[in-house]
Specification:
Layout lengths: L8 H10 L25 H25 L9 H13 L12 H32 L1 H14 L4 H12 L2 H26 L3 H9 L4 H39 L4 H10 L3 H28 L5
Helix pairs in contact: 3-11, 4-5, 4-7, 4-9, 4-10, 6-7, 7-9, 9-10, 9-11, 10-11
Length: 298
């Protein structure tokens, strides 16, 4: 028979104090990790800051345009220009003869001339910039010529091209070449001149040849300057081709603008201005991305 022993509250407290304190057993349960708040995939504030200001600027321009042409009978309104653009880009690659082609073919022909003239300018201008920056005697010889020829208007070079090549297409390419070469020459030469002297001293100690020096030391150091010159040159080339094609004729965005002016189609002229700006912006942004890709700042 089991007998229950009862203690008063005071006796129970005294008995508990008399027992030795036992150490708490360590807990082997894993500690709960702090969960970082999940960042949204799209930062709405950043997106709004990047998108809203340009959209607001374009909306302001269109609003002013609509306000100024509200009662105009000669200058088209934004709505009329938009309708003409929809019809124009519904079939941008039509052909109705050698001088009646869609705006798509005109843009492609202009880009082809720009690519050829700009490519030739890069083949000549970049090596020339390296030589001017590397050798002081050559720099003193060529710098006055560059300073003299660089400010010449593109339209002043076009008659020389027509005289020499006897054809409009090579004359336009020549004009692009001679106008877009100078930014590459100047920026490349400046980049070579700013290469730290310590690099050149190391190359002299190692007895490197000029070709090895240019390939291993100068080219990586000058690349950001060179790409800046290329970016400026392609903008100049796209600017020049429009003016050259207005005078030479044929198929191209410049000739298309002049032809639409002869037809008094102001709506198409405004569309062409927007297209020229967009294509130029895309070319420049592509070269900016290329320059960031090959940047050694980080």
């Amino acid at each position: 028979m089991v007998s229950a022993v009862f203690h008063s509250p005071a006796e129970a407290a005294a008995e508990a104090c008399a027992k030795p304190a036992t150490a708490a057993k360590p807990s082997h349960a894993p500690a709960a990790k702090a969960i970082a708040p999940r960042r949204p995939l799209i930062d709405h504030r950043t997106l709004a800051g990047a998108v809203l200001p340009p959209v607001g600027g374009i909306a302001l321009l269109v609003g002013l345009w609509a306000l100024l042409t509200m009662n105009s009978t000669t200058f088209p309104t934004p709505a009329a220009t938009w309708e003409a653009a929809v019809q124009l880009f519904a079939d941008p690659f039509y052909r109705n003869g050698p001088n009646d082609q869609g705006i798509g073919w005109n843009i492609l022909n202009s880009l082809q001339r720009v690519a050829v003239g700009f490519g030739l300018a890069a083949l000549v201008g970049i090596p020339l910039g390296f030589l001017i920056g590397r050798f002081a005697v050559l720099n003193r010889m060529v710098s006055p010529l560059v300073s003299l020829l660089r400010p010449v208007s593109p339209l002043a070079w076009l008659p020389i091209g027509l005289l020499v090549f006897k054809s409009a297409n090579p004359a336009a390419i020549w004009t692009i070449f001679i106008c877009s070469i100078w930014p590459m020459v100047i920026n490349t030469a400046v980049g070579v001149q700013r290469v730290p002297q310590d690099y050149l001293n190391v190359a002299r100690v190692l007895n490197l040849s000029e070709l090895t020096l240019a390939r291993k030391i100068l080219f990586p150091a000058v690349l950001p300057y060179m790409l800046t010159g290329v970016r400026l040159s392609v903008g100049t080339a796209w600017l020049v081709i429009v003016a050259a094609e207005m005078l030479t004729g044929g198929v191209g965005i410049g000739f298309w603008v002049w032809d639409e002016w002869n037809n008094l189609n102001v709506q198409h002229i405004i569309i062409a201005i927007v297209v020229i700006g967009v294509v130029g912006l895309l070319l420049e942004q592509a070269l900016v991305a290329l320059a960031k890709r090959f940047s050694f700042d980080d």
